[in-house]
Write a structure and sequence with these properties.
By secondary structure, this protein is α/β, with parallel strands linked by helices. It is built from 11 helices and 12 strands. Helix 2 links the parallel strand 1 and strand 2. The chain starts with a helix and ends in an 8-residue tail after the last helix. It is found in: Cell envelope.
Length: 327
Amino acid sequence: MRNKIRKKILSLLLAGILAAGLCGCGQEAETQKTQVAMIVKSTESAFWKSVFAGAGAAATEYNINISFDGPAAEEDYETQNEMVRRAMDDGVDVIIFSAVDYNANAEIIDQAAQRGIKIIVIDSDVNSSQVSCRIGTNNLQAGIKAAEAALATDDEELYIGIVNYDVNSANGQQRELGFRQTVEQDPRVKNITTINVLSTTEDARAGAKEMLLSDSRINVVVTFNEWTSLGVGWAIRDLNRADRIQVVAFDSNVVSVGMLETGEVDALIVQNPYAMGYLGVETAANLMNGQTGGPSVVDTATTIVTRENMYEPESQKILFSFEEEGY
């Protein structure tokens, strides 16, 4: 009997030692996971929620720990810089970054790279030579697509209003450049007016209304991100000008798709934010595994969606890739 008890105690002791060893290995494996900080321009829009969904899926697939952060306002580069500093202090391996300000975010990104942190840019570029890979929309080409959609009208004379966001944000400026270079070749274009607003729905709404009321000739309006698109759509509705103005907007959520249906918006230039998030994390995993031969620039593509093609299966997949919660 004593021998049986002694054997049982010994087996339990051995099991406990084994479990402790396994636990220790699990904790060690957890600490050995690649630590990725995704720091972007905003966290609330459907666009960024789709980015996070793609990044989360890739983080699960590649066994990566990832955190998500971004300022409350898309113009707040100082808070973004503080978030990068915190990520540096936390000892992350990779920062996936979307810059509020092309120049004002550059120094802190260079500092992070000098500490050995890998830098991947998604969506909005930063003025740094230390970036391993840039993933996102070809913004010049996206601007060209917006121009093609804007010019798809029978009006004989075009007076164009551009509602753009922060002049220091690289992607908005590239989109406007591609747009201008294209529409300026069309002899129907008589005038182009640009305003820059805060990247909020209400500021874009107010700015668009003021622009339209100050120049009644404007018959085409283009805008370049999700929040300004909503603001322009509301301005068109407020002024009851859906039948008079061709509106080309960017991105998709429940509200903007509804505006496409009801006529306040005539075309949406839809990006692929899910791919930006997924490919950003996949690239982080590859870099940490020593795979350095990948492309330095990855274009995630855009699609023009209009009322004519919005119900086609491919358009539906593109339009409704965002998460509906909160809209």
